[in-house]
Structure formats: C-alpha cells, structure tokens
Amino acid sequence: MRDRLARVALAGSLWLGLVAAAAAQTQPMPVQPEPEAEPGDEAAAPLPPPPPPLLPAGPGGAGIVARSRPRPWQYGLGMGLLYESNIGFDSLQGGAELSGFAVSPRGSVTRVFWSPRWQLQATADGQWRGYPQHSSLNRYYTNGSLDGSYRASPATAWNAHIAYGFGYTDSVRILAEQGVQLPLAKTQNLGAWLGVVHRLGPRMSLRVSAGGNRTTFDQAPPPAPQLNEGQSARVTTGIDRRLGARDTAGIEYSMERTQAGTGSSGRHYLTHFGSLQWSHVLTPRSGLLLDAGASYTPQSTLAGLRQPAGFFGGASYNRKVKRSTLTAFLRREVTPAFGTGVSRLEDRLGLTAALPIGQRWQLMANGTHVQPHAPSGASSTNAYGRSDDAAFTLSRRLGRRIDLSAQGSYRRYSGTPAAATDTYQIGAFVSLVNP
Fold first, then answer.
1. What are phi and psi of 17, to 5 degrees?
2. What is the pTM of this model?
3. Cis ω on the peptide bond leading into residue 56 (within 30° of 0)?
4. Over the stretch 96-137, which tens digit does the pLDDT of each residue have?
5. How far apart are CA 325 and CA 285, in angstroms?
6. What is the rounded distance in angstroms from the CA atom of residue 252 to the CA atom of residue 273?
7. Are 77 and 110 in contact (CB under 8 A)?
8. Which of 103, 111, 294, 352 could form a disulfide with 327 if both were Cys (CB 3.0 to 4.6 A apart)?
9. Where exactly are the structural domains of the chain?
C-alpha cells in the first residue's frame, strides 16, 4: 500500500507542475490518485496529463496516453433555446441593457489517433447564437485544437497543446481565467504549450515547459472603450522530490514576458516567479497542495502594479470519488489582464464540481471570484474591478444517443458599488451524442 501511495504522490507532483506551467495564471492542483500500475511494473507508471486547454475544447478533452485504444471519433450536435438578461454586457459605458431570447445550434467533432506510446487528438467545435429581437447582436463561435502526449521512454513524457478560437469576449477562456470582464467585442485567441517531465531517479523529477497566448479584439467605434491586444509568453522549470508515501516537495521558477498593445504604442515587461510547493495525499481519493513564494516585476509602473514584488502562491484541494469530482483553490499572483493594457495582482477563489445524480443525471458547476489590487490613484472602474463568473449544466441521458440539458451562467463586474453590471443566461438544449 505504501508503494502504491508513493507512486501516486510522485505522479501527482508531476501533474501539478505541468498544470502550473499551462498559462499565465497558474492553478496547480494536488494529486488525484488512481490505480496506476501493477506491482513491480515501474515502466508502466502513468504519464501526467496535459494542462487544461487554453481555449474550450470539444467533448472528451485531452488526456494521457490511454492503456487501451480510445474511441476514434467523438461527436455532438445540438439545438437550444436560451434567454439572456444583458446581451451586450455594456451598461458601464452608458448603453441600454438589451435582453431577449436566442436560438443556438451547435456542434463538435473530435478525432483521436492512438498508439501505446503516443496519442493525438484533434477537435473542432462551433455554435451560432441568433436573437430574433436583436438581430444586430447575432454571433457565432468557432474553436479548433490539437492535443498530443508522447512517452519517449519510461522516464520521459512529453505533452503539447495548440488552439485557435474566434468568437466574442464572453467566450474566451483565458479572459475568464484572468478575471477580465469586458463589453461584447469580436475576439481571436491563439494559445500553445509544450512541456516535458523527466524522472531523474526513484524520488526526483525535472519538468520544463514553455507556452504563450495572444488575444486580439475588433475595436468598436466610440464611445465604446478601446481594448488592448494582449500577448504573454512563459517559461517554467521545476524539480520535485518525493519525501514519503504521502508527501512531495518541489521548487519552481518561471519567467513571463507580457506585451500590451502593438506597434509604437506597445509595451512589454518581464515578471519573475519563484515558489516552494508541498503536496500531501489526504486519502487515496483526495489531496492538498500548498504553494508559497514571491513574484518580481522590475518595470512595475509600466505593468500597472502597485509595487515590484509581492506574495505569490495559494492552496488547492481536490477530491474524486467514483464519478464525482470536486476542486477548490485560493491563490494570489500577478496576472496579465488582456484587453485592459495592464497586469494585476489578484486574489482568486474558485470551485469546480461534477456530481452524478443517480444513473442518468449529471450536475456540473463552477464559479470564480477575482479581486484585483489597484495601485494608488488608479481608476477602479477601468481595469481593477471585482469580477464573478459562474455556470452550471444539469443533463440527463435519454437512451444511448440523446442528451437533454439545462444550462445557466452568470457574469458580474463591479468597478465600485455604484458602478456594476451583470448578466445571466438560462437555456435548454437537446443533443445527439456518442452512444
């Protein structure tokens, strides 16, 4: 049993390192134990899964190299009716809050290529949203991604991700992770990531990764606010050491280059991150991670920060029992805020849950609260307001191919108590899916 927990702790430490390097806003997670290898089969120790995609992915998601051949094709085709309370999310700029119903057809397809040592997944998805009462606000969203995993040797694992999305500011995952709530505008996002983990010995491992994001906006005519193009690139390296059957410690350093704007008006600056991490297996199905260190931005005034150095880190918890999963985190760190032209020191609190209800019902919910720290003299209504984002899906499978779901979401931006805007969306969908 102790040997199994030791392998669990080591695999979990590799995973949290990869997740931490995935994007500018790190959310490392503790171990989520699974049965991983037969006794004595060290060569079959699992590869760590890749980080969450930088853009929404289709059904199935990217994972480790599967032990058995996965389903080669996955698909979904659906139609929904929804109501939105504030379609443009623009009352802060003095515009009227337009509400109304919308029809929303959507679809996705995923192709998986597999061998015992590698896996490649290609995903494309899209949806259209039409408002009969406000046809000028009709819009569509498209995303495409490639995710790959490769076991180069029993001691070395590679993972890669690249994605492109075209849509609007309410759909870009990187903006939601940064806690940025913007008025409705056309948006394009490109994200890529590559990481490798190499086992240095029975107790130590080295991880190196690099990735970046680029987000551009179509500018609306005045008086709408002008949104700044955002770019960031990050390199991370770390070493993990297993301390015992339940504990793993790590040290990590990252450097991020952020650019806001383009051409002669563009500004770029560096931020350095260093931290110590400790992961503890609470039970065979739950884990806790503590992460503490500091960040340093030499050009803090250019970045829009109150001071060059600050605390970096937080706590994360996850639990998995059968088909139920729960993840929670609390973090403070410097994060680029695409569209605003600055970086922000943020406190972020998040919760994600997937809960089966009986044999055919499934509830999925998530929520995030972001509280930026504004430098003295900054306008809180410009780039440093609080933001909240929450969503849920309650679904039921009918037969082998039909899925019914109720979905809802809520967004809120609070510059000051007297200047806040929000929107909620509620809808019902019927979908044709894989058996």
1. -65, -40
2. 0.81
3. no
4. 678 999 999 999 999 999 998 999 999 999 999 999 999 988
5. 10
6. 8
7. no
8. 352
9. 2-433
